[in-house]
């Protein structure tokens, strides 16, 4: 019998969609399995061809899950430099055009056989459980860990009747996370406070960025000019991703920032508007299409400017620091983790932005230490996850799951808590099993069970009577 702990990682997106919940869980699976201490399975959504066309870029399409798995493994191994030993499984998903996200279909806990169910990581636990109808996660798995990636409350506030929607969503998120998770890890304090949650950055950066940073450090040690360009920003080109704040700061301080050159890189729905707004500034702002942050075009920039306050934990900020650059960013909870690095310069207001930007451009970045590089790595992120999850404590639970506490005076309160949990879980089970109530709360019609085509593609048994 395999004595290794089994960690299943469920997430809400997959490559080639280059979004955080596709990329970060993939690296997490790679580095947790690399240690050799765990058996790891990554569970990702499988989309119909119609949905793939809506979601995946550059007309990339897959006829089968095995084709997509081959693509994912090749992409990952090109970046990590090692063969990854984890398994990949798929669950049926559908793309919601109004939410711009993939939602689960059916009982996705079926992706892991009962005999292998041990520890499960839910990347975006609220997202994965809003419409969950099936086995209770905390019953099937010995430990359920939620990792919160997104501040959904901030997103819905921008919609029609946003404040009311955010109010309702706050309580729904609390409810489902309380039902289904033993522990919750929030990447930063920029997320909703949830039951049994702690704040810990359990993400790392693509090792390619650390390699770039090491080369820059060697150039600095040799007395060479490591950075020959000025300031830039890269991000999805939508106003909510920091472009609105950045262009306003540049507009309001054109006199103080005279001579400043800033290059913007990104693709998105607001690209045209961003370009038009940039042309109206006296400051030299150049706008370019987006590309991979590891591309050589970015290596020689000295200063990364990121005024965004909508991120939970900005991946590009971590990448810029790993490449040895100075980062100028807002004094915001999403940036708390980065304040430990000398090259992170935060500002509280527009005057502070001007001061820190000019100062950064006039100085050379501090050389990264080995400890700082490690802190940004996926090895360190994996260590933080295991510590935050308290996985060493789960062994005792697994060996004696039915042991009764000898402290009889506690049994009544414990039973009451369990009864309340069970009642809450049953209420969600009933509500999530009713098509009308599902649609009221935004589920995709017909998503209670996977259709026959998806079952066939995944090798799942088509539910009788579906």
Compute the CA-based radius of gyration.
Answer: 23 Å
How much helix is in the residues?
A: 40-55%
The strands making up the biggest β-sheet line up spatially as 4-3-2-1-5-6-7-8
Q: What profile does the largest beta sheet have?
A: 8 strands, mixed
Q: For the terminal residues, how far apart are their CA atoms?
A: 37 Å
* Low-confidence segments: 394-410
Average pLDDT reading: 89
Structural class: alpha/beta
Count the beta strands. Answer: 14
How many helices? The count is 18
Described by the principal axes of the CA atoms, the overall outline is: globular
Percentage of β-strand residues: 15-25%
Task: Walk me through what this model shows.
By secondary structure, this protein is α/β, with parallel strands linked by helices. The protein is built from 18 helices and 14 strands. The strands form two sheets. Strands 4-3-2-1-5-6-7-8 form an eight-stranded mixed sheet. The chain has a six-stranded parallel sheet with strand order 11-10-9-12-13-14, sandwiched between helices. α7 crosses α16 (408-432) and α8 runs parallel beside α11 (315-322). The two termini are 37 Å apart. Mean pLDDT is 89; it is low at 394-410.
